[in-house]
Write a structure and sequence with these properties.
- The chain has 11 helices and 9 strands.
- With about 350 residues, the protein is an alpha+beta fold.
- A hairpin with a 2-residue loop joins strand 6 and strand 7.
- Helix content is about 40%, strand content about 20%.
Length: about 350
């Protein structure tokens, strides 16, 4: 039994010395030290030994078991270190290499224009008001002095959902709703940005969906000169201090009198070019004094209150300001186009 134990020790130590992976080492442990291992098999013959031999063989078996266990543990630690070292080598990162650039997005050009206009008017005491894009016929037309059958409705071919619901054709309903909330008491000083919808054929200058910003100021003794001063400040803010404006008579059902505002062409400085069609002026927005019927329907006394309103398209402003020739560029989501204006 002594010889068998010595042989098992030598075999185990030789195998541990040459093993190269954790699983093979575990197999060696089970083969020699397990409950059904070789040393246990040898010890089953202890019953045939004399009383004097049993403690000697028992002590030797324990020594052999301890030697094999120590050898296995030492080998296990070595294999673990080698595995970690190999992993570190395989996963080495060269920290001197340039990093991958992070793609940073930016605001859409239209949002930049809208926020710029909002900042100007909020600095002048206006509040930003919003309303539903699915609007009632009453607020979209009737409350704005456009009763059913009015010919001016034909200029705003609309997406109707029912006979009384439609996708709003302008942001003017927000003005009517806001005036109603004030219950006939001024002042009302708001701008209304948002999306609007009209049944139109898409081309370089038209879209079935676009954005609009309208403004409204209602108070006692509001005059046309107040409107002109406001629009003049807007033009210079958007297009430069050297810009001049002119107001031309026009017609809108919800204002009286109504005007179109032109700005002097920045390309030719008013001398006449292809951009301004040789006129020296470019149409930019519509405006006017709020019609007494609109005030009255909103609960305001037209004998006491007056006001002005204006409306503009951020797309048109952006196209003029940045030389963009096609309105469809704003909505086709071509990143190459949008990236040009991230820092605007």
């Amino acid at each position: 039994m002594k010889e068998r134990l010595q042989t098992l020790k030598d075999e185990a130590l030789n195998q541990v010395k040459t093993v190269t992976d954790q699983q093979a080492l575990q197999d060696i442990r089970v083969h020699y030290l397990g409950k059904k291992g070789q040393i246990t098999e040898v010890l089953k013959g202890m019953g045939k030994l004399s009383k004097e031999e049993r403690p000697v063989i028992g002590q030797l078996a324990n020594e052999v078991r301890d030697v094999i266990t120590e050898a296995i543990e030492a080998k296990k630690s070595k294999l673990e270190e080698e595995a970690i070292e190999k992993q570190l080598q395989e996963e080495t990162v060269d920290v001197t290499l340039p990093g991958k650039p992070t793609q940073v997005g930016g605001s859409h050009l239209l949002m930049n224009v809208i926020r710029d206009i909002e900042d100007l008017f909020t600095s002048m005491g206006y509040q930003v008001a919003e309303g539903p894009e699915v609007e009632t016929d009453y607020y979209n037309f009737e409350a704005l002095n456009l009763p059913k059958g009015h010919p001016a409705r034909d200029m705003q071919d609309s997406f109707y959902i029912t006979e009384e619901l439609l996708m709003r054709t302008h942001t003017s309903p927000v003005q009517a709703r806001t005036m109603n909330k004030h219950e006939g008491k001024g002042p009302v000083k708001i701008i209304c940005p948002g999306k609007v919808y009209r049944r139109d054929t898409d081309d370089a200058t038209h879209s079935h969906q676009f954005t609009q910003i309208e403004g409204l100021y209602v108070d006692e003794d509001v005059r046309m000169s107040d409107l002109k001063g406001t629009l003049n400040a807007l033009a210079k803010h958007l297009f430069g201090e050297e810009r001049e404006i002119r107001l031309r008579p026009s017609f809108f059902p919800f204002t009286e009198p109504s005007v179109e505002m032109d700005i002097s062409c920045k390309v030719c400085s008013g001398k006449g070019c292809s951009v301004c069609k040789k006129t020296g002026w470019i149409e930019i927005l519509g405006a006017g004094l709020v019609h007494p019927n609109v005030l009255e329907m909103a609960g305001f006394d037209p004998e006491k209150y007056s006001g002005f309103a204006f409306g503009m398209g951020p797309e048109r402003i952006a196209m003029l300001k940045y030389g963009i020739e096609d309105i469809r560029h704003f909505y086709t989501n071509d990143v190459r186009f949008l990236k040009q204006f991230h820092r605007v």
